[in-house]
Amino acid sequence: MQSVSGIPTCDLADAMTRLGMGTRFVLNASPVSPRVSSSLHSSVYLIGTAHTARFAVPSSPDPVSPINAVDSLKPGQVLVIAGAVGAPNAYFGGLLCARAVAIGAAGAVVDGRVRDLNEVCEHESVFPVMSTSPVGSVLGAPTFAKCVQVGGSVTLCSETAYPITINEGDIIVGDVDGVVCIPADRAEEVAALAKKIQLQDAAAKVDIVENGFTLVDAFKKHRTV
């Protein structure tokens, strides 16, 4: 995980795209904590290993998981929640956030809504929260959804053109631009290419700003990977 730490999500996403790794980003994910108005928003950086959970509608034949997704977090993990498609409730809120912070978890990525935003944002400096929903919810999960899986593989954004499967232990990185997921066994490869991309883009920027290069010429000269 150390190899990818500090690398922006855009460079990691570009690297995984060029490596032909398929969909490795969480569509529409963006920070809900820190808020846009926070001084921490632009510099937010989330990194940790995934601890997965999946919710389903109450009518689902899947039984409720006997494991609590938050209580089973370990220090440094990122809670990754696959919400039930179409459910109106939130999957993460104030008490869950307080417990996750007490454990020492790194943050949360929620494919669904978040509530208790003021409480969640109390922990913005130590626990970033990313969500795929542009709006929150006043509703908690009970009655509207049930947690049917903790651990293993879950699929986020399942009813979009860009579903992503995230496995327990995958590396999650999030920042102001979005969220990416890196298989742990490919982290070194992804990091190496992402760093090359960073260097090439930095050189292209110098030529554009200082030497009058067009985008076409700068890309032709510098984008070789």
From TrEMBL:
GO terms for molecular function: 4-hydroxy-4-methyl-2-oxoglutarate aldolase activity; metal ion binding; oxaloacetate decarboxylase activity. Keywords: Magnesium, Metal-binding. Pfam families: RraA-like. It comes from the Eukaryota. Mg(2+) binds at residue 116. Its cofactor is Mg(2+). Coiled coil: none annotated. InterPro entries: RraA/RraA-like, RraA/RraA-like_sf. Substrate binds at residues 93-96, 115. This is 4-hydroxy-4-methyl-2-oxoglutarate aldolase. It comes from Chytriomyces confervae.
